[in-house]
Amino acid sequence: MLDFSQYDAFIFDWDNTVAATEPMHIEAMVRAMRELAGYEMTYADCLDYIGSTSTDLAAKIFARHDITDIDPLQVSDHKAALLRQLELGLRLFPGAQEFIEYWSKRKKLALASNSSREFIDRCLTAYGLEKHFSYSVTVSEAASRKPDPAMLHMAANALGSLPERILVFEDSDTGLKAAANGGFPAVLVLNPGNPLPSALPTQLPMHTWEQLLESSRKA
């Protein structure tokens, strides 16, 4: 099990790492593609969306199907508008909230998400988690999304620690690549219903929140 004592701070991803938000994003994206492009997303498209962006996925689909009359940015904007209309019916994965609450009393915590500031603030407020994070950064503030490590470095600077002393919690290829690209150690959080990343680095720690919480209490 992980030795948490070697880390000064933790950085958490949000979507499908702490909370099961991916179904909301997918529902809004499916509707946006249907309403703007008359395109019905496939299961493969939905899998491709995990860890990607609305703009990038729309661009890939449009290129594949020779759709040229719609800008992918229009899809992204429409998806964001639809997401705002959806009821926040997300759930936190078992053990995630308890893990965050436990370590917020012992280490500095940050959140780094490819989602928008508006969406992340809405989620954190709904669960009363904002008080547990010393810092949060979203795609609304960062110059680039994961797998670029820019937002992780922003969080590290705010936490006042070096990348090698910060443990990153992720669920996807995109997040794990961001951590590797930035020199951050990472753990793959195994959540119910989440597909495993396509390529798993050698020696990558993989645990559920409940396992991580149990290990924390024994430390």
Give an overview in words.
The chain is built from nine helices and six strands. With 219 residues, it is α/β, with parallel strands linked by helices. It has two domains: 4-20 and 90-218, HAD superfamily/HAD-like (Rossmann fold, 3-Layer(aba) Sandwich); 22-85. A six-stranded parallel sheet has the order 3-2-1-4-5-6, with helices on both faces. Strand 2, helix 6 and strand 3 form a beta-alpha-beta unit. The model has no long low-confidence stretch (mean pLDDT 93).
Question: Layout of SSEs?
Answer:
Blueprint: E1 9-12, H1 22-37, H2 43-49, H3 54-64, H4 72-85, H5 96-104, E2 108-113, H6 117-127, E3 135-138, H7 150-159, E4 166-170, H8 173-182, E5 186-189, E6 206-207, H9 209-218
Parallel strand pairs: 1-2, 1-4, 2-3, 4-5, 5-6
Keywords:
2 domains; alpha/beta; Rossmann fold; 45% helix
